[in-house]
Amino acid sequence: MFSGFVTRFHITGRSLLTLYNKVAYRLLSTTNTISKNIPGISFEQEVNLSNNHLNDKYFLERYDQRKQLHYARQARDAQVPLGGLVDLNDVFINNEVNLNYTKVYGFDYDYTLANYTENLSRAIYRALRYLLIKQFNYPKGLESLDFDQDFAIRGLHYDMQTGWLMKIDAFSNVQMNTIYFGREPLKDIQELHEIHKGVHISQEYLNDMYQLNDLFSIPEACLLADVIQYFNDHDVKFHPRYLVEDVRAAARIIHLGTSHDGIGGQLHHMIINHIPEFLEKAPRLVKYLEKLRTHGKKLFLLTNSSFGFVDKGLSYITGSADWRSLFDVIICSADKPRFYTTRRPFRRVSAPNWSIVDKFEKGNVYQGGNMMDFSKFTGWQGSSIMYIGDHVYSDLVSPTLQQGWRTGCVIRELSREISIRNLPTSRFSLSWLLNLESLIREAQAASIDQQHREKLQLLLNEWRSERKELRTLLKRVFNPQFGSVFRTHHNPTFFANKIRKFADLYTSNVENFNNYPLDYIFYPERAYLPHEGLVETFFDPGQRM
């Protein structure tokens, strides 16, 4: 497409801006056939309009033409297979990774090797609610509350001073229509401005907020909102910090328990007693791990979960009680992220477990430990290691910053978000939003006489209202309250920015890595800065609109 286009429109002797307008138009209409098939509109008309006198009528004509082109493209693509759809099983690249240099593969357990069913979130919610009532003396009226899987998303922040749940972007700005107090949107946005003098959250204030980072935290977010709503409805006075501290304490109890029985807390007992209800089998996972071993790769398991819990789970997931033979080193109850920074010694899980561990032995299982001894015992270091997990702070940050490991992140929500983005309605709503924003930018910067300025301002107001409606629509298709896990209106979310910074690769399921040969080089797409797009997109067919 581009080679033929450049041949027809030589750069030499032409205005760069005129050429840019033509390229932008070609990208918008995709093929010549669209504009040719619309009565009264041609490519030449669109380009030549730039020579007309700028006024409100000119911009209205631009709007009408672009909308007709947009709907023509929508009608065309509705009748033929859509191109450019994103593969749900793809591995996405933030940073170049050459698998030829990867000699060691490490894995987390929960939500990495183990995929849980939706039943788990409801079970966590009910267990937390029970503890709040029975152990923390919360009102018995909370028994009527239950988990709503459509309310919260991962990556939200909870304000311990106000009790607000909100979504924050990569620049620490609050997305305005994602602030909830209980189950209701914040009624007076001026309250946010009074606290923060705008929508930006200072780093000091942000450090005192609680971020709900993993999939285990989604039922926590829902419970926090439900309890606050109950308190508001019943005029119960409370401090938001006490509430989140109690919920977090309850979460520690159900995950870790209060005794060393080798399994963990109430949640782990519930899962292993009803494994088919909570865990998904993964036959492709075994094939991937076996492929790694066949090609001489070293494998290790590094998880915070107890061995008794992991043993039951992986025996079910892999269909074999001999799953330990897949790994060279197995470390449970690792207490990440403290594992990376402390000097706690390793202990053998099997008795006698008080003897000193000064090397790893094949077939043994270890608990606790620290990064320094791990590197010493194995000799594995630096970028030869690829560690794959699901939690930003437990699995990605320290291995990346302190050890130079390569990292992969498993984000289960990714497949759903891609499916929604691939829908024709989502694609065309986004396409029209981008067109509309382009028109708004152009009209704002136009030099227009005073006679037409007021009419143009009215037109701009209409376009901004339409833009607001489109942005709300694109938010609600992902989640009515908080939108996409990965994006605010135009910026990455705080959560997505951490993934971009600390995960070299990310995907929806660890098994997706099996789709690539072990000598594959993951090349990231060129990331364009705003000032680079004008010239570079002439020649880069990979640049997306």
From TrEMBL:
Protein's UniProt keywords contain Lyase: no
High-level lineage: Eukaryota, Fungi, Fungi incertae sedis, Mucoromycota, Glomeromycotina
Family to which this protein belongs: Belongs to the 5'(3')-deoxyribonucleotidase family.
Positions of GMP binding: 110
Listed Gene3D superfamilies: HAD superfamily/HAD-like (3.40.50.1000)
This protein's UniProt keywords: Hydrolase, Magnesium, Metal-binding
Gene Ontology MF: a single term: 5'-nucleotidase activity
Coiled coil: none
Note on how the cofactor is bound: Binds 1 Mg(2+) ion per subunit.
Active site: 108, 110
Keyword Secreted found: no
Requisite cofactors: Mg(2+)
Positions with a binding annotation for Mg(2+): 108, 390
Source species: Ambispora leptoticha
Protein name: 13245_t:CDS:1
